[in-house]
Amino acid sequence: MPITNSIINYRRFLKRRNYSPHTVKNYLNLLKHFVVWVDVPIEEVTKKKVVAYVDSLLNRRLAPKTINCHLISIRVFYDYLQDEEGIELTNPVKQGSLLRLPRPLPRHLRDHEVIMLFELIDSPRDRAMFSLMLRCGLRVEEVAELHLADIDYRRSRIMVQNGKGGKGRVVYVSRDAYRTLVAYLKARPTSRAKRVFVVEKGAYRGKPLSVRGIQKRMECYARKAGLHVSCHQLRHTMATQLLNADAELVTIQDLLGHSLITTTQRYCRVSNLKVQRDYFKAMEIVMKRAMAPQRSSAGAREETSPQASPPPEPSESQ
Questions:
Q1: Is 70 designated active site?
Q2: CB 187 within 8 A of CB 280
Q3: Are 142 and 188 within 8 A, CB to CB?
Q4: Which of 105, 143, 294, 295 has the highest local Cβ count within 10 Å?
């Protein structure tokens, strides 16, 4: 089968697997780069050829994370050719072919930085957007996709219908975030859009606000505040604050929509306040237990020691 037909069928396959439109577009774009670069038929590509492709990407100074995206798109395509089209070939991209990536700790905002940032946000819409990230842990994509029907005002909660990986979840809205959201909805421009956050000015007034539009608003406020902050760091801040307030790790995992508890556990390495409290609390118990045998042995020595004899009576000659 010609490679063009395979790619068309592959696109349909990704859609049937319920990949998001953004993911489908990204996979196909990355695969196109590889197909244009490779100089042998797609069925004859070897691991050595893939290594040469990685070298070419490194020479273009692409980040390791970006190169891994290229490799993953190629690997998924070859899996498709094997499993769906029945083509006998060896997948040249194995699990161990991906580049090792650094695992930086999630960076969160300090309390005074949160105050500094939100003092500069005077737009009801922007305050509502960023409050949902800070208090509910919503991703920027989830804020952009939030629909009016997703908000349960009576229970103060939001139904995230299509989170990362197509998974839904329920998040809860704090009192201050609830007030901010209601204030925006009262001032929201009249629009037929079902999404909550819309453009407020210009030719696109009333149209849904894009992810990039939200990110640009954050970049603007970050410059004014003199802070290095992104939308995703508000989500990190929420997780860290909950952990410092002694929320259970599984609760934070559920609110953030993490598939693996190990992803949530990374916040434990950042949240030094809870570690500090737990350490000193545990040390008090340890030291009390260590002192108990010493006090017991000291009391026993006092009971068994001989009584001191009284001083002698003075003699008459003295």
A1: no
A2: no
A3: no
A4: 143
Q: Is the pLDDT of residue 230 over 60?
A: yes
Whether residue 37 is found in the same domain as residue 164: no
147 is catalytic: no
The pTM for the full model equals 0.67
If one counts the domains in the chain, the total is 2
CA distance 15 to 11: 6
Residue 127 structural domain: 111-272
In-domain check, residue 190: yes
Residue type, 74: I
The pLDDT of residue 146 is 95
Does the pLDDT of residue 162 top 80, yes or no?
A: no
pLDDT of residue 86: 85
Q: What's the rounded Cα separation, in Å, for the pair 159 and 170?
A: 5
Catalytic choice (49, 157, 232, 274): 232
d(C-alpha 119, C-alpha 107), whole Å: 21
Same domain, 90 and 239: no
In a domain, 233, yes or no: yes
154 is catalytic: no
Residue of 75, 108, 135, 139 marked active site:
139
Are 88 and 120 part of one and the same domain? no
Instruction: Identify whether 17 is a catalytic site residue.
Output: no
